[in-house]
Design a protein that fits this description.
By secondary structure, the protein is α/β, with parallel strands linked by helices. Strand 3 and strand 4 form a beta hairpin. The chain is globular. Bound molecules: beta-D-glucopyranose. The site of beta-D-glucopyranose has 10 residues, from loops.
């Protein structure tokens, strides 16, 4: 599978009924999404460009706040819109990969406490049931949650995303609720497909993988922090869904209603962090992220100052291949003003994926982030991740040269690299 991804709030425009919009307009965020890429109206043209670029898959998300405007009240027009998006993709021979939740919550859900509400798995299940019944016939690949752990970290530890609450107990609560919500969603998606005699669905989450290295290579304590952090951020959520339980002494003791609720593993990979040990306390053992000045010799940086580190793609695939499930790269991308850099980034990262495949790992696809330049959450419109450039004043689309070279790789289903 080859293609690219977007998410509703980042591209659609005018998503005024969700918690992000509220935060944007309450001055809690520096930037506003506004019209974004007006993809809500321009999706047909955008999908034609994806087809022109030879994409055979496309990942996008449903905007819950448009579909379930108030609790239990579903908007037929919005459902019709997403039906048409799926129909358009299918007619272009592009496989839809549908994300059900990509960070945003309807205002009514946020007002009920959002992910902190202990009923959220049931509330989410109601939404999932409706959209799967309405849209499932033409969807095989479902992503229930986008980057749950990154979402929790940004929203409940760093507090820079809605609901802007820095609270470790809340973070743990939300972690458990998200696990439960995925489990319920998984069961509903499978049941609905079965009842309707539709193709057996493939369900997963999109798991953010952060490559981690110890600050000082030979330091026992830096390595300890790196391993603890990697276990908690990269592995724990996936492990819990596979085993059906999550037990972290003193922190989490949770048995889920089902195990093996991943049919494949979706990986989002971008960058690496260096970790140093912060002392003999739970917080200290988790370590600190080193400043850039500390690692000037590390790789080049993207527009947001994230290190470009293709080797991390190896670690990502390796981290999850132990579960013996197919792997789909659900996101990988770079924000840069230098398109030649994007071209190199794509080639190198796909090269790493190819290497994993040749060593026997079942990677079923590579989805680039993103089809279009878009609204980069708390960073606004500055970072340019798109294969297609967007002029936000005129909404004019321009295909970048990196998109053409990606298209060449897709065409040959091959990337020419020398494996050292
Ligand atoms: C998210 C996207 C985001 C991208 C770049 C991923 O973590 O799923 O929504 O735009 O990273 O930051």
């Amino acid at each position: 599978m080859w293609g690219s991804a977007t998410s509703s709030h980042q591209v659609e425009g005018d998503n005024s009924n969700n918690d992000w919009w509220q935060s944007e307009h309450a001055g809690k965020l520096k930037f506003s999404s506004g019209k974004a890429c007006d993809h809500y109206n321009l999706y047909k043209e955008d999908f034609k460009l994806a087809r022109e670029l030879k994409h055979n898959s496309h990942r996008f998300s449903l905007e819950w706040s448009r579909i379930e405007t108030k609790e239990g009240e579903f908007d037929c027009k919005a459902i019709g819109h997403y039906k048409d998006m799926i129909k358009t993709l299918v007619s272009l021979d592009i496989k839809p990969i549908v994300t059900i939740h990509h960070y945003t919550l309807p205002v009514w859900v946020a007002e009920k406490g959002g992910w902190e509400n202990r009923s959220i798995p049931i509330i989410f299940a109601g939404f999932v049931k409706k959209v799967v019944e309405e849209l499932g016939e033409n969807v095989e690949f479902w992503i229930t949650l986008n980057e749950p752990v990154a979402n929790i970290y940004k929203s409940y530890i760093e507090a820079v995303w809605p609901p802007h609450k820095s609270s470790f107990p809340c973070a743990i609560k939300v972690f458990k609720h998200m696990l439960k919500a995925h489990c319920e969603a998984y069961k509903i998606i499978h049941k609905t497909h079965k009842q309707n005699g539709w193709k057996t669905p493939k369900v997963s989450i999109a798991k953010h993988f952060l490559a981690l290295s110890p600050c000082r290579k030979t330091s026992f304590f830096d390595n300890l922090s790196k391993n603890v952090r990697s276990y908690l951020f990269n592995d724990l959520f996936v492990r819990a869904l596979v085993t059906g339980k999550c037990i972290v002494p003193g922190l989490i003791f949770l048995f889920l209603s089902a195990k093996k609720t991943l049919d494949f593993i979706g990986i989002n990979y971008y960058t690496r962090d260096f970790v140093n040990f912060g002392g003999l306390s739970p917080r200290g053992i988790l370590g600190n992220i080193c400043t850039l000045e500390h690692h000037t010799a590390a790789g080049k940086r993207n527009f947001l100052n994230w290190e470009i580190y293709p080797e991390g793609m190896d670690s990502a695939v390796k981290c999850y291949s132990k579960y013996n499930l197919p792997i789909l790269i659900t996101e990988n991308g770079i924000c840069t003003g230098d398109d030649a850099e994007r071209e190199g980034f794509i080639r190198e990262h796909i090269g790493k994926v190819a290497k994993s495949i040749s060593s026997g790992v079942n990677v079923i696809g590579y989805i680039y982030w993103s089809l279009l330049d878009n609204f980069e959450w708390s960073e606004g419109f500055g970072p340019r991740f798109g294969l297609i450039e967007v002029d936000y004043k005129t909404q004019k689309r321009t295909i970048r040269s990196s998109a053409r070279s990606f298209s060449g790789i897709i065409d040959k289903n091959t990337v020419e690299m020398s494996f050292e």
